[in-house]
Design a protein that fits this description.
Number of domains: 2
Number of strands: 9
Shape: globular
CATH topology of the largest domain: Rossmann fold
CATH architecture of the largest domain: 3-Layer(aba) Sandwich
Strand content: 5-15%
Structural class: alpha/beta
Order of helices and strands: EHEHEHEHHEHEEHEHEHHHHHHH
Helix content: 40-55%
CATH superfamily of the largest domain: NAD(P)-binding Rossmann-like Domain
Largest sheet: 6 strands, parallel
Number of helices: 15
Radius of gyration: 22 Å
Distance between the termini: 84 Å
């Protein structure tokens, strides 16, 4: 396999996470070729120094390593042309670095197809939302063959404060789902804590102060408690993405025959939040679903006018 010295790197998927990740690569001096299904998002990186590919085939022609930060599995398949004659032409001799979150089963099947077509594959899902993406403080979990990982790992330094090799595919994505179990339960628990304090008439700023110096505090909790107190629901990681991750965890848990009681509750709450029309809001807007449950419960407990008149 050739080295990447002097060659441009491809980047596909310029969304909430992909945009700051691409910018950090450019700032670090990486020659970046970008493409996005929504062309305006790719064009926004041109001013920062990226080259915008004319189309997807142009990107693959220019680059031997292509980073994917795609929204889902169907989008990835469409971009690489999986299941079509274009697939082999695009991926042969290329290394695909998958930094998004998909099911482990899908990832393993994709690796098999890539290798059959003469390509290479590295799983590199990341832990962290938009803020750590902006500051290059993501944590990447890597899986694949040793040579491919060794080739890719240095390229991720501008994006990550840590990269951890987890083993063969799909161990990195399985690890990412395990990490997300804790993340989803933590954020949901934080939202419920704020709701409990609020409905008991407590000072939410005091709650934030206490939690921020408590043993439970983390970089994530400090950011999220601030957003919860100010009811700032602008997205760092959306409800839609959180629910998709939740589905992946539950599916993997069921396939392994293991219980996922807390994640099951989170999935219900995120689904209720989505029903409220808040899919593009930050994951902390799960607070709104918790509030809706309390309001419904209060309405049921309140005596009706007919019962009072009797």
């Amino acid at each position: 396999m050739k080295t990447t010295d002097g060659l441009p790197i491809g980047f596909i998927g310029i969304g909430i996470m992909g945009q700051p990740m691409a910018r950090n690569l450019i700032k670090a001096g990486t020659r970046l070729v970008v493409w996005n299904r929504s062309a305006d998002k790719a064009e926004a990186l041109a001013a920062a120094g990226a080259t915008v590919a004319q189309d997807i085939d142009d990107l693959f022609d220019r680059c031997e390593v292509v980073i994917f930060m795609m929204v889902n599995e169907a989008a990835m398949d469409a971009v690489v042309g999986r299941g079509t004659p274009a697939f082999a032409n695009r991926v042969k001799g290329r290394t695909i670095v998958q930094m998004g979150t998909t099911s482990p089963t899908y990832s393993k099947a994709l690796e098999t197809d890539l290798r059959a077509a003469g390509g290479y594959y590295v799983e590199a899902p990341v832990s962290g939302s938009r803020k750590p993406a902006e500051t290059g403080q993501l944590v990447a979990m890597l899986a694949g063959d040793e040579e491919s990982i060794a080739r890719v790992r240095p390229l991720l330094r501008p994006l990550c404060r840590e990269t951890v090799v987890c083993g063969p595919v799909p161990s990195a994505l399985s690890m990412k789902l395990a990490v997300n179990v804790f993340m989803l339960c933590m954020v949901t628990g934080l939202a419920e804590s704020v709701h409990f304090a609020d409905r008991n008439g407590l000072d939410l700023n005091q709650l934030a102060t206490i939690l921020n110096v408590s043993p439970m505090a983390s970089d994530v909790s400090r950011v999220k408690i601030s957003k919860l107190v100010s009811r700032d629901f602008t997205a760092q990681a959306t409800i839609t993405d959180a629910l998709a991750n939740n589905h992946l965890i539950v599916e993997a848990a069921r396939a392994a025959g293991i219980a996922s009681p807390l994640v099951d509750v989170c999935r219900q709450l995120y689904g209720e939040t989505l029903t409220l029309g808040l899919g593009s809001n930050d994951v902390i807007s799960v607070l709104r679903a918790i509030e809706a449950r309390s309001d419904l419960s209060s309405a049921k407990d309140k005596p009706s006018e007919n019962s009072i008149s009797r």
